[in-house]
Amino acid sequence: MSVVPLDYEVLRLVWWLLLGILLIGFAVMGGRDLGMGMLHPFAARTDEERRVLLNLAGPTWEGNQVWLILGGGAIFAAFPPLYAVSFSGFYIAMIAILLALILRPVGFKYRGKIADPRWRATWDWALFVGGFVPSLVFGVAVGNLFLGAPFRFDETLRVTYEGNFFGLLTPFALLAGLVSVAMLVTHGATVIAARTDGELAERARRYGRLAALATVVLFALGGLVALFVLSGYRVTSPINPVGPSNPLGKTVVLEAGAWRTNYGLMPWMIAAPILAVLGSLVAWWALGARRGLVGLLGSSVAILGIIATAGLTLFPFFLPSSIDPASSLTLWDASSSQLTLFTMLLATVVFLPIVLIYTAFVFRVMRGPVTSRSLGKNPNAY
Question: Cα(50)–Cα(141) distance, rounded to whole angstroms?
Fold first, then answer.
C-alpha cells in the first residue's frame, strides 16, 4: 500500500501543470524586463529617457528571475530525464542565454559609472542583447520541441545527443523565436506605456502596437505550419500513466497531422490560441487608447495563451526525438518517483504562496509612474 495519498497519474499531471505555470510566470514577470531591454535603444532616445527605463526595471528585475530559477529547479527535480537531455543537448544555447542575461545586471550597474556617450551607448546595446538573445533562443527552443531533437537512449538509458547549435536554427524554430520576441516586445511596451509619460511612452505605444500585430500574424502562421505542414509525433503503444518512468517502454510514430490530435480529443483546447490572439489585440487597442493597465493585462493574457497553446498541442510530449521516436520524452515516462513528486508538491504548497505574496508586496511598494522628475528625488537612481 502506497504511503502517498495522491495517485501517481494525478501527481504527474499536477507537475505538468505547475511547470506550465512557472514558465508562464517567468514569461510574464521576467518577460517584461526582456521586452523593455529590447526597446531600450529605440523607445528611449535621450540619456534621461534611458535612465527612466533603467529605473523602471531596476528595482524588480532580480526578483522576476526567481520564476526562471523555479522553472529550472522544477525540471531538474520533477523531470530528471528532460533536464539531462535538454541541458546537455542544448548546452550552447543555454550558455548563450546565460551570457546574455549576465549583461543585464552589468549594464544596470556600469552604464552610469562614466558620463561618456560612447560608454553609455555600448551598455545600452548590451541591454538590448540581454533582452533579445534570451527571448529569441527561448522561442527557438519551443520550436524545436515540435520538430524533435536529435537524441537517443541506449539500452542502459544513457543518452546520446547527435545535433549541434546551428542545427537548432531551422526556419520553423526561428519563426517560433520571432513569435517570442514580438510577444515580449509587446509586453515590455505595455509596461513602459503604463508607467512612464511623454515621448518615451508615445514611442513605446507605437512600437508595442506594431509588435502586437506581429505577434498575431507570426503566431497564426506558426500555428498553421505546426498543425498542417509539420509532421508530428504520436504514441502508438498503450499508455500506463502510473507505470515506472522508462522512455524506452513505448512506441512512437512520426506522422502528418499528429499535432492536431489533441484538438480532436479535447476541443476546449481551442480556448488557448483564442486567448493568445485576443490578448494581443486587446494590447494593440489599449496601447492606442492609452489604457495602460488594460494593455498590460492583454499582453499577459496573450503570453498565457501562447505558452498554453504550445503545451497543450505537445501533450503528453515534453521532447520528441527526431532520430529515434521511441526515445521521446513524455509526461508518463520522464518524471521522478511518486514519493519525490509528492514531497516536492508539499514544498511548493508552502513556498509558492510566499513567492506570490512577496512579489505582490514589492510591486505594490514600487507602484506608480517613473519619470525624469522622479529620478531627481531618488538618490539611489541609476
Answer: 31
C-alpha–C-alpha distance, residues 275 and 277, integer Å: 6
- Rounded CA-CA distance 38/43 in Å is 9
Strands 252-256 and 329-330: unpaired
Is residue 14 exposed (0-12), middle (13-18) or buried (19+ Cβ within 10 Å)? middle
Q: What is the C-alpha separation between 187 and 135, in angstroms, rounded?
A: 12
How far apart, in whole angstroms, are the C-alpha atoms of residue 188 and residue 28? 10
Please name the helix (run of DSSP H) or strand (run of DSSP E) that holds residue 368, with its range, or none. Answer: none
Nearest to 300 by CA among 26, 10, 9: 26
The whole-angstrom distance between residue 375's C-alpha and the CA centroid of its chain comes to: 31
Residue position matching grid coordinates 479535447: 266
- 214 and 182 in contact (C-beta within 8 Å)? yes
- How are beta strands 329-330 and 317-319 bridged, if at all? antiparallel
Query: Can you tell me the mean pLDDT for 2-16?
Result: 88
Cell of residue 121, nine digits: 551607448
10 Å Cβ neighbour count for 137? 23
What residues form DSSP beta bridges with 149? 321
Residue that has been written with the C-alpha cell 523565436 in this structure: 177
pLDDT tens for each residue of 69-81: 889 899 999 999 9
Nearest Cα neighbor of 67 from 316, 359, 374 is: 359
Cα separation, 328 vs 250, whole angstroms: 9
* Cα 308 from Cα 272, distance rounded (Å): 6
Give CA separation, 210 vs 32, 63, 205, 213, 293, in Å: 17, 29, 9, 5, 18
Eight-state DSSP code of residue 152: E
Phi, psi of 196 (to 5 degrees): -130, 180
CA distance 372 to 52: 6
User: How many CA atoms lie within 13 Å of 82's alpha carbon, on the beta-carbon side?
Assistant: 26
Type of residue numbered 80 = P
Tell me the three cell numbers of residue 305: 495563451
Residues 266-273 have a mean pLDDT of: 95
> How confident is the model at residue 1, as a pLDDT?
46
Distance CA 287, CA 217 (A): 18
Taking only Cα atoms into account, the Rg of the chain, rounded to an integer number of angstroms, comes to 22
Q: Are 78 and 335 in contact (CB under 8 A)?
A: yes
Q: Is the peptide bond before 325 cis (omega within 30 degrees of 0)?
A: no
